[in-house]
Amino acid sequence: RRAIGVRLIEEREVYEGEVVNIEIEKAxxxxxxxxxxxxxxxxxxxxxxxxxxxxxxxxxxxxLLRLNVRPGDVIEIDAETGHVTKLGRSKxxxxxxxxxxxxxxxxxxxxxxxxxxxxxxxxxxLHDIDMxxxxxxxxxxxxxxxxxxxxxxxxxxxxxxxxKSKKAELVPGVLFIxxxxxxxxxxxSFLNRTLEQEFAPLLxxxxxxxxxxxxxxxxxxxxGIPIDxxxxxxxxxxxxxxxxxxxxxxxxxxxxxxxELSTEALDLLTEIGVKRSLRYAAQLLQPAKVVAEISGSNVxxxxxxxxxxxxxxxxxDSINYLNEELKKDPxxxxxxx
Length: 337
Prior knowledge:
By secondary structure, the protein is of the alpha+beta class. The protein is 37% helix and 27% strand. It folds into four domains: 109 residues, CATH 2.40.50.360; 49 residues; 57 residues, no CATH class; 73 residues, Helicase, Ruva Protein, domain 3 (Orthogonal Bundle), CATH 1.10.8.60.
C-alpha cells in the first residue's frame, strides 16, 4: 500500500495577496514578562485588481507574528482553518537597505480578488491513510496497534467514494521486489490476491535463478515462481553483455568513482568481466585504486589489478580453493558433508 498513491483534490476559500500594512495587537505574556502574545491583528491585502482590509483573531495573529509577516510579503490565509502560509516576498516591494531581501523567495503579486476559491492537490499513500486511522483510534482510546483488514477495507471505501465524486485521483506506483525467488508460496499467494484488486501497483520482480524450488514446497518452477504467478507477468528478455558493453560499463564506473585507468588496466578488467563476471571486475576498481596510491601512482595499472586479484577471489576461485583444501583433509570433508 506504500506503492499506491492518492492525489487528493480540494477546493478551499482563501484570502491571498500582498500585505500593504499590518498592525498586530500585543499583550504581555502571562508567564514570561519579557515576551508578548498576539491578541488580534488588522491587515490590508491587495492583488492586481483589488485591495481588502481584514480583522483577524488571536489564532491568525499569532501565526502572523511567528512568521514575521511584514508589508511587502505575499501571504495566504485559509478562510476555514485560519492557517497562514507565507508564499514569499513581492517583486515590487520596496526595500530600505540594498540587498535586504536577496535571500528571500520573490513572487508575483496575485491576480483576481483577494478572497478566492483555490484548488489544491497533495499526494499521500494508502499506507499513510491507514496509519492516520490508527492514530485517530488511539486518540479515541481504541487500542489499535496494527493495521487490520477492517481498517484497510474502510480506507478503500472512503477512497472509492472520493474518486467517484472526483475529489481524488488514484496514482498507481511501482512495487519492485529483488531476489523474487526468495519469496515463499504464501507471499506469492498474497501477491496474486493483491494484483486482482482495483487498487494494485505495478509489480516488478527480479531474479537470476533458472529452474529452482518454490520456497515452502517441494515443487520446482522457472525462476522459483509459481506457474500461475508467471502467467500474470510479462518476462523481459535479458542477455549477457558483449565485451564492448562490459568495457563501457567499467569505464563509466571508473569515471563515476574518480578512478583513472590506464588502457592496459581497462583491457584487463574487461577481460575479467567477460570471463568471470562484470560485478567482480567492478568490485576490483576501488581496491586497485588503493594499491595504486600506496605505490605512489595516480593511475591504476595492470599490476595493481593483478595484486588485488591475488587477495580477493571471485566465487569460482573460492569454490576451487575450498575443494582442493578438502581433498587434503578427508576427515574435514566428511565432517562438512
